[in-house]
Protein 1
Amino acid sequence: MMLQSVAWAQGAGGAADSAPGLLSLIPFLLIFIVFYFLLIVPQQRRQKKQREMLEALKKGDKIITSSGIWGAITNLDKDTVTIQIADNTKVRMQRDHIASIRASNES
């Protein structure tokens, strides 16, 4: 008889039974929000900054490619860039592979 009363007491809930289902979703929502602000938003900002840098390229800019090659832009097309990496050496590559613009005081 003791076991029946304990089981009956645990089973009686009524409207309160729906709340634990919603409360169990709160940790997942909080984790998603944290991931969004720590991972997704900074990545979107970096992509926007990189896109703006690529659109602002002009002839004569000194750049560094994503593979580490240093050079100066000699010609720009819509999707490609010609880079002079030595006195008589020019390389044509995709615009997307430019990592950064060098400061004018760097050699």
Protein 2
Amino acid sequence: MRLPIGIPLVVRNVKIAGPKGSVRVDLVFDTGAAFTALSWSVLKVIGYDPAVAPERQEIITANGVIEVPKLRVDSITIGNVEAREVEVISHDIPELAGIRGLLGLSFLKHFRTVIDYRQGYLEIT
């Protein structure tokens, strides 16, 4: 699947599925993030409660090291590409209005990914 890109690279209309349904959100594409990060509100809507997630993950933020809930969502789909049982962390990204998280390596590791800034596209196959 090929998507047009800009900076920051925002992937629109990403489908996140869980035990109580799915939502479509916009995520920042982040090859430097080990995990896909989703907001608490997104996870709650699709049937997860990050507050009681048994696993925690340390992450480094601008404010230092913090621990966040870690869990697996049923699937993440962009266009016609889907990854199942994707590890995600629950962390709100307040400085980016309208963005509900980061699309990180825990999703990207399932695919071949090409970023071509000269031609202006992101390809995930």
Protein 3
Amino acid sequence: MTSQNPVFIPGPTNIPESIRKACDIGTLDHRSPAFARLFKPAVAGVRRVLNMGDAGEVIILPSTGTGGWEAAISNTLSPGDTVLAARFGMFSHRWIDMCQRHGLNVEIIETPWGQGAPHAAIEAALRADSAHKIKVVLATHNETATGVMSDISAIRRAMDAAGHPAMLFVDGVSSIGCVPFDMAGWGVDIAVAGSQKGFMLPAGLAILGVSPKALAAMETATLPRCFFDFKDMIRTNAAGGYPYTPAVGLIAGLARAIELLEDEGLDRVYARHRRLSEGVRRAIAAWGMKPCAVSPDLHSQTVTAVVVPEGCNGTDLVQLAAQKYDVAFGVGLGEVAGKVFRIGHLGSLTDVMVLSGLAAAEMCMADLGWPIKLGSGVAAAQDYYRLNAG
């Protein structure tokens, strides 16, 4: 009966029934007007969720967020180009690794895990680059390994203060659709999302917003690309089609997902995620534990990495939850493996659903002999949710 329990991992997230039904369509000619009628509303909706305005292009690839990042760099950069990135979690590390594999020169700002993107260090690195060799600043908006959400607007201010012309690429895979994202206002040149997080779909779509500046960079970029070539996508998308076979069912689901988000109201969606995350943190405090994020301004609204007590192993809790209670939490990754377990609170979740996850976590702690009073965290979250009901 596992399918009856919601998941509490930071993606893939729970899929609402109406989105599953929207994806479940018969074979459709993807070169027909019928496909264009599905595709165009999805593109327009993504533009609204990203706050792109009228400028730039939306690119929807049959891939994942990782493929979206590969498309971002391969369409805009050339071998030997320099990019600037801070490493402060597993996913910022993976983007750095990807760039290095593509023959790019990566200037890395090493940052302790649990902290966010170091705005001052980014500004200093850009000021020191008087020759403007740095072509792109890479930023992970929400680092799911540590439950840290960085301030993208502060990174843009740092770039502007340095007077540097670099582009800004943002990994918004586990933030877009869950928290406010202002692509135009923050001066983001490429934003990358994935279908399986805030959009509440199965994995399979990389969703990108691309600014005019990034589109211009395509004209001189020489990294190889074929399947991910933006030019092919833009040319065929204009007529409502694809240069190859698209993920028709997922695109139909994406259009429905945006309908759900906008029916709820994006402001209410964002408020719900703030409320859910705060209730989880109240529960953690009642357990006598703390988040991995080092300060409240860094607390993620989509996932919390819970630092486990000394002598305990977070992976044990995740494994027991899956084996005994059919409940999925996230393990610690990289430098925090075993030191944390992760509670995802994004996508299709409610207060009541989150309470069930907190109760399951408490049962696992008690089963493992951790110092826990059953019901303590649940009660703390209940008190918060009762007084802050959506």
